[in-house]
Amino acid sequence: MDSLRAAWLIEIHPVLRLSRPSLSSQYPLPAENAKISPKASLSYPSDEADGQFILSPNLTLPPAFGSAYVGETFACSLCANNELPEDETSRVVTSVRILAEMQTPSQVVPLDLTPGGEEAHTDGLGKGQSFQKIVRFDLKEEGNHILAVSVSYTETLMAENLHAASGRVRTFRKLYQFIAQPCLSVRTKASELPPSEVDNKSLGPYGKTRLLRFALEAQLENVGDGAVLVEQTILNPKPPFKSRSLNWDFQRPDSVKLQPSTLNPRDVLQVAFLVEQEPGQQDGLEALQKDMKRDGRATLGQLSIEWRSAMGDKGFLTTGNLLTRKR
C-alpha cells in the first residue's frame, strides 16, 4: 500500500444536518488489526470508543451525497487523521494543513476554515490523533456543487538515533459532489391601483401631485421534500416607494406573539403588500420617472424570506428586483 494512503485518511461528517443528506455509515477498522490503530480510522478518534460496536457514532459524506437547498448553509467538519501504526517509529508526520474550495456552477470560491489561523501542527500530529477544521458555505446558486478538499503534510523519515534523516511534502485531494436545488418557489404579481393625490404648493395654490400605488402579491410554494417553517416575509421597497404588509400580521399590536406559517411539501402561502410612492421623497424619483417614460414599468423592491427546516436549519432567500407590468 502506498505510504500516503497508509498514513492518511480524510473523513467528512456533517456538523449541521443537510436538508436531504445521503450519508454512509462509517465502519472503524477491526480492533485486532495490528498495522493501523482502529482509533485513527474514525472521523473523530476517541479513547471511549466501544470496540464491540460495529458502527461509529459519526456518519461520513460519500463522494456524491444527494441534494442541499439554496438559501441554506452547507456545513461539515474536515478531519485529517494520522493512521500510522502504533509501533511505527521510522516516520513522523508534521506541518499538516487542510485547504478547501467550493466549485459552484458559476465560480470557484476558496473557503475560510474555522478555527482560523495557521494551525498546521508544525510540531507533529501523533498517531491516532485528528486535525480538524469546520467549513461553512451559503448556498446561493442552483445546480451542481463540488467541495474540493486538499491536505498537505510533511513525512519525515527518522534514523535509528531518532534524528531526522530525510523528509518530503505529500498532498492528496478529495472531491464531494452534491446538487443545490430550490426549497421555496416564489411567484409574484403586481397590480396598479388608482393613484393618490396630495397637495403640492409648488404647482400653485390648488396644485396636486399624483402618487403611484401598487398591490404586490406573492405565492410561496414549498418545492422541497420536507416541511418548512416560514418565519418572516418582508418587502424591501426601492425608493421612492414605501411598503405596508396586507397579511395576517397587519396592524397587530407588538405584544402579540405571532406564529410562523408551516408549509408541507407542495403547500402554498400567499402574501400581499401595498406599495405606495412616498410624498416628498426625492431619492429614486428621477430613476422612476425615466423607467416609467421608457417602458412604463416601475421597480418596486425585493422580497426577503426567512424559514427553518424541520431540523431547525435556517434558510434565507432574497428575490431579484420586482417589476410592475408594462402599461
Structure description:
This protein is mainly β. It folds into 2 domains: 179 residues, Sandwich (Immunoglobulin-like); 140 residues, Immunoglobulin-like (Sandwich). 5% of the residues lie in helices and 51% in strands. The chain has 2 helices and 21 strands. It has a 6-stranded mixed β-sheet, with no helix packed on it. A hairpin with a 5-residue loop joins β11 and β12. It is elongated and about 100 Å long.
Structural class: mainly beta
What Rg, in angstroms, do the CA atoms define? 29 Å
Structure summary, number of beta strands: 21
Mean pLDDT: 77
Distance between the termini: 72 Å
So how many helices?
Answer: 2
**Percent of residues in beta strands?**
over 45%
Order of helices and strands: HEEEEEEEEEEEEEEEEEEHEEE
Would you identify the regions where 5 or more consecutive residues have pLDDT less than 50?
A: 1-23, 53-57, 250-257
CATH-defined fold name of the largest domain? Immunoglobulin-like
Biggest sheet, spatial arrangement of strands: 2-5-12-11-7-8
